[in-house]
Specification:
- It is a single chain.
- The chain is α+β, with helices and mostly antiparallel strands.
- The protein has one domain (18-112): Arc Repressor Mutant, subunit A (Orthogonal Bundle), CATH 1.10.10.10.
- Helix content is 48%, strand content 12%.
- α2 (31-41) crosses α5.
């Protein structure tokens, strides 16, 4: 006869937790840097974002921008010129994160200093 464990049997399912969803989005590689870049530079075109983020691939940047747009964190403005111009900017929704982004930037400066 097997003994019952004294430990309660339960599984925590965090998939539906709002904080888990937010942290999942923000912890994706490049996301905070991308939001910081848009926060500091305002509306920015794709090529400028790519140059400003350094080693990010075009595919990854495209995926991340699509994800952030789907979440309502950034706006994508398409101008049908030749060649087409696409500009990205932060939404009002993500501006709630502004104090967090600024604080992280300040902590990074204190801990690691400027590379300028």
């Amino acid at each position: 006869m097997a003994e019952k464990s004294s430990q309660p049997e339960y599984t925590l399912d965090y998939d539906d937790e709002p904080l888990t969803k937010l942290l999942g989005i923000l912890s994706s590689r490049w996301t905070l840097l991308l939001l910081h870049r848009l926060h500091m530079g305002g509306p920015t075109r794709f090529g400028e974002l790519k140059r400003g983020l350094g080693s990010i691939s075009t595919k990854t940047l495209t995926e991340r921008l699509r994800q952030l747009e789907a979440e309502g964190l950034i706006d994508r403005h398409y101008e049908p010129t030749v060649p087409p111009q696409v500009t990205y900017s932060l939404t009002d929704k993500v501006m709630e994160l502004e104090p967090v982004i600024v604080e992280l930037d300040q902590i990074a400066e204190r801990w690691y200093g400027s590379k300028k």
